[in-house]
């Protein structure tokens, strides 16, 4: 027994000697490695910390810029829509004069009366002036007829004269300028949309206040600085490391927590935060955190900097080398004490303790392996062993058991929640599919639709950008010889546009049954849509009525894309005449019909803007030139084949890019009556 005890002591002493020699060799090299490791780790940690903060700063600033740009773009769209609506009304008055319903002077006076009656305030008003810079419409009625005094815009040009020149060149323009307020007590920053009305040599301006956009941006920058202050105060490494932000002139944008005293506490080489700024080089690289070499008299200072050029800010992080190496020295001291004791205790306690530790882990392993056979839609079966581990043990094993129980319970809850969400999503998808089927059921689907009518052949196709869309097409006969057809595009997409489309289609068919002309149909439908339209939705529409016996086509275009007339041996001709504004905007709008004579073999292509505005991954639009190129050979008596070729070309062009708008194409081939007339087609003319 004594021999075994002596042997155990000898073995123990031999092991202790080996451990001592090993520790004597390892500890010095470990100290060097630890110092290098801590320096490298703190350097990496400092750079990553500054990089993360710079990324947050950059994202905040970019979000601020995007929000400001979005606000300006939203203002521009609103002003442009308002200006276009005003010009559309002026065109209506001009149209009344053109059709003889009133004289030119009466039309101008009526238009001016309408413009003067529009609401006006500091935030938005209408201003109209002519080629002699005389004010025709102004919020201050007393100034009407006076010469418009010109200030300068943000580019230093005469505001209204330059805007008029741009309108004459480009059709419309935007301008930012300073202008007296309506009460003339101050000068305010304004933003205006200018559009010309050539028939009367007018320039229409929609003026809005722009100062609230700048105030909002300034408030956001102030809020960004307040938010960043919290982050800067939280950025620190070691006991004395601090972060701060300077501007280009050395002024403190965000001071470290504790101010100059905190900077001085880092090292004796810096009396305050201003001294740290002067240590930064003037040529800091962009988009990269730089380690700055401090001067020789800066003590044990370690400095990192990042230049944020958009605001000319410098993010600085200052550390003390003692803070960096202190933990390494502490680890080295403790390592010598712990190495022997940990190893000895490990040898003595490892075997008996391993059994105690492994036993509960084995029970957990059995429970984990059983997870694959569990039904997670039900609550877990009670497990007494697991409950005892959670209740009786307060160590890592107990926490691990608790974490496992929490994971099991959470996993079951999430799976039940996922099943519920999946069922709800399937229900919504089913409803949208049903809505799509209903919408498709409203549209003609059989082609050719009238095999017993050799006078015409046609084909049409509609592809929605979403489950349901806002495009429409329809066609039908009236009195056997008249063939009606309509193609429209509702503003917006999705379910609201689909409902508005269905209403428009029903109203059009009802109007056609009354025997109205295309112009009469659109006037009646426009009144019904505009009368109760709280969401200000509208629909552009092309409506035609073809006399199959004579080939005479009467049509009316309400703000829709111009159709293409395809004649044999001739280039495609766009029917660009607009007969009135889109339906649903303003009541009591006059619509005039146009007419032309189709010869046997002529084709007509009507489409929505989803064709020309289809884009590829590089955001290049399909465009009218490419459409003209496809249409130039004509349909060759086969509208269905032509529609297939057009959609194949669109699919090849977009190259997998997401569809952004509904696409509708209506192709009509006129074969002529039983005995086709040989007279040449009459020129395009107005009939109402």
Automatic annotation (TrEMBL):
Keyword Transmembrane attached: yes
Ranges of residues in domain HAMP: 355-416
Q: Where, subcellularly, is it found?
A: Cell membrane
Residue ranges spanning the membrane: these are none
How is this protein positioned relative to the membrane? Multi-pass membrane protein
Q: Name the PANTHER family for this protein.
A: STAGE II SPORULATION PROTEIN E, STAGE II SPORULATION PROTEIN E-RELATED
Q: Output this protein's name.
A: SpoIIE family protein phosphatase
Q: Which organism is it from?
A: Tistrella arctica
